[in-house]
Amino acid sequence: MSHWAGLLSTAAKVNLLVLLVSAVFFQSSLSDRVPEFALTKIEESDIKDDSRKEPVTEDDADPEDLEVFYPTHQWQTVRPGQAVPAGSHVRLNLQTGEREARLQENEDGRSHTREERGRKRLGKVDVDSNSFTSQELKKALAKMKESEKAERKAHEEEVRKKFRPIEQLKEEFEKLNVKMETDYEIMVKLISKFNSSASTLDEKVAALYDLEYYVHQVDNAKDFLSMGGLQLVIDGLNSTEAVLKEHAAFVLGAALSSNPKVQIEAIEGGALQKLLVILATEQPLAVKKKALFALSSMLRHFPYAQQQFLKLGGLQVLRSLFRQKGTETLRVRVVTLLYDLIMEKMLLEDSQHGDQTEEKLQQYRQVKLVPAVVEQDWCVVVSNLLAVPEHDTREKVLKTVGVLMAFCKERYRGDQALSTTLSLLRSEYEELAAEEQREGDKDGYFKELLGSVNTIIQELR
Q1: What is the pLDDT of residues 289-304, one digit of tens each?
Q2: How big is the CA angle at 208 (ends 204 and 209), to the nearest 5 degrees?
Q3: Is the pLDDT confidence value at 457 over 70?
Q4: What confidence tens digit (pLDDT) does each residue in 326-372 have?
Q5: 111 DSSP 8-state letter
Q6: Is-contact 274 237, C-beta < 8 A?
Q7: Cα 403 from chain centroid (whole Å)
Q8: Residue 105 contacts by C-beta under 8 Å, 6 or more apart in sequence?
Q9: What tens digit of pLDDT does each residue of 6-16 get?
């Protein structure tokens, strides 16, 4: 048994000796090779060297402080501290322990490094040279910065030519003595001009004309009231100059429109009585137009003013306009006013009741407008206007007749003239509506008027 163990031990020793001899022979054969074919390891530019220190690259330091390695198509040793351009072919020589680099080439032998492509874009830099010094790179960057500065200055000069600086504009405005005024300041000046005894008639009229523009705004109208302008305008209704009356009424109507605070102050200031006097007396048509405008602005959505209007005999004053010559344009406006006053009460009664609505309804219930209209025979006065030729006037009258139908039905049924007029209107609007349909307008204006006429005729049967 010991004999076989000795034999195995001897065989193992022989095998070990053979392996050692082979290794020595293989190493000597490698050392005899040409250095060009030495065993190497190909690496990229970011592989660490034997000392485990990272190589200095363009990302790790300022390019101006680095010594740049300029690769060629031959392997060259990369010295410590040199920056290798991106895209270069880098290897680690395992025999010498040094890093080597060269240009990376494809099959056709062209260089694809970013550094090489960058050289072609530098223009004035010597692209044929094998290397660029840091001074050359600095000069190229400096030229680029100078070019950018020149372009920026040229743009600024172009802007200066197109626009003037704010300081210059301020100086020019100061020389022109231009000052921005608020609406309040402007109205103070206009009121002062209107109230000044030194102002001429034309200046006063011009002041009123401008005031009408400003007092349309609710806030301006309130300011106009607080600065005493409203009472001056109301007093202007008593002027002996018709043109002043006209423009004073115009300003008053503009200030009253949808402005309850001004409406209350105006009726307390006696504006209602003065307006009714203008409408009841002989005045130019232009003055009466503006007075009726102011009266309408005061009465709309103001039940207390409507109540006072009836007490002062306002309906009789308006009815007198239908007997005066040359007041045809005013008659349609009167009918429209009556329609609006009746409708606003009816709409309020049909609306959902709340605390404020109930309070306003109580105020409207004290206004006996419809009974006064029926009593003073406005039913016939309104229906007679259907004989006018204007379609717009007929439309407004038909609406008013339709509203009055609930109170004037018996009166209308006995009015033979109204029956004849309605028959004529139906025939006329049937033809006009048919013509509209032939032209492709199925829901035209005349069809609507025909519908109103037919509705009234149907209710009178």
Answers
A1: 999 999 999 999 999 9
A2: 115
A3: yes
A4: 888 999 999 999 999 999 998 888 876 666 778 888 899 999 999 99
A5: B
A6: yes
A7: 42
A8: 73, 111, 112
A9: 444 555 555 55
SS3 65: helix
What is the DSSP code (8-state) at residue 123?
Answer: T
Could you tell me the two tokens for 395?
A: 């439309």
Residue pair 325/386 in contact (Cβ under 8 Å)? The answer is no
Q: Read off the amino acid at residue 97.
A: G
What does the DSSP 8-state code read for residue 247? H
What letter represents residue 153's amino acid?
A: K
Q: What was the pLDDT predicted at 53?
A: 43
Could you please report the per-residue DSSP string of 170-210? HHHHHHHT-----HHHHHHHHHHHHH-TTS-HHHHHHHHHH
pLDDT over 60 at 26, yes or no: no
**Residue 391, pLDDT above cutoff 70:** yes
Tokens of 328: 């045809």
**Which of 75, 71, 99, 98 has its CA nearest to residue 86?**
71
C-alpha distance across the termini of the chain, in Å: 148
Q: State the DSSP code for 398.
A: H
Tell me the two tokens of residue 43: 């690496």
How far apart are the C-alpha atoms of 254 and 194, rounded to whole Å? 17
Pull the structure tokens for residue 427.
């025939």
pLDDT at 167: 78
User: Could you report the per-residue pLDDT of 192-204, keeping only the tens digit for each?
Assistant: 999 999 999 999 9
Tokens of 376: 């003073």
8 A C-beta contact, residue 101 and residue 89: yes
Distances (CA, A) of 232 to 172, 216, 265, 269: 39, 17, 12, 10
Asked if 68 and 85 count as a contact pair (C-beta separation under 8 A), the reply is yes
Question: What pLDDT score does 10 carry?
Answer: 57
Predicted confidence (pLDDT) at residue 124 exceeds the cutoff of 50: no
Other C-beta atoms closer than 10 Å to the C-beta of 121 total 9
* Tokens read off for 110: 């062209």
Strand pairing report for 67-68 and 82-83: parallel
Cα gap 294→275, rounded to integer Å = 8
For residues 298 and 290, what is the distance between their CA atoms, to the nearest angstrom?
12
